[in-house]
Amino acid sequence: MSDLSARLAAVDAAIADAARAGGRDPSELTRIVVTKFHPPELVRALHGLGVADVGENRQQEITAKIAEVGDLPGLRWHFIGQAQRNKARALRQAASHVPLTVHSVDRDRLADALHSAADDGDPTLDVLIQVNLTDDPGRGGVVPDGVEALATHVLGLPSLRLRGVMAVAPLGEPAAPAFERLRSCADVVRALDPAADWISAGMTADFAEAIAVGATHLRIGTAITGPRPTGG
Predict the structure, then answer these.
(1) Is the whole-model pTM more than 0.85?
(2) Total number of domains constituting the chain
(3) 149: how many CB neighbours lie within 10 A of its CB?
(4) For residues 69 and 40, is the Cβ–Cβ distance under 8 A?
(5) Contact 113, 88 (CB under 8 A)
(6) How far apart are CA 124 and CA 121, in angstroms?
(7) In this structure, is residue 174 part of a structural domain?
(8) Does the residue 199 lie in any domain?
(9) Residue 138 maps to a domain
(10) How far apart, in whole angstroms, are the C-alpha atoms of residue 103 and residue 202?
(11) Structural domain range at position 78
(12) How sure is the predictor about 1, in pLDDT bands with cuts at 50, 70 and 90?
């Protein structure tokens, strides 16, 4: 626990320094701790240290962890992995029990599946549009030129609430110019809905660059949690 607390404090201090260097208030930023492949006990330990936002990459894992530790008060969950249409109902079911945001909506059909999976009385599901900042069509995300059309589509689905955009910096390219492209996409979305002002960007190696271009949500994993369990 002491090591976990020290790592969390060190990352939070670095985030605060990067925010102040960019003329921003650190309180504007949401730090999401990615607990991929770690046991639910780690989520409980993080919550005890004041963590309010945790993220997972796989539907099965987020569903299992919510079932085990979803009763922790004030904890918000973030699904940040690639979402498949056949997992839409499971994600909606998870979101009926806890606050959950899906960061990875990248096509109309996925948005439609998440909307269709809503049952009467389900809360509105917060979603972000994932943008592909690479030239590789196999990477997750909509191309920047497709952001406006996808955002317009999502805004027409009443069971979804569009919160903004998300992206992962490309490998082999400086993060800063890539995140500038994401910022341009965020501007397109905000022109359609000023309330959709989240920018989910920045991980352990590049959160300072993300903060500099206006990121609001940072996804930090092993720098806080430590190495993932063997086999993860």
Answers:
(1) yes
(2) 1
(3) 11
(4) yes
(5) yes
(6) 9
(7) yes
(8) yes
(9) yes
(10) 13
(11) 2-225
(12) low
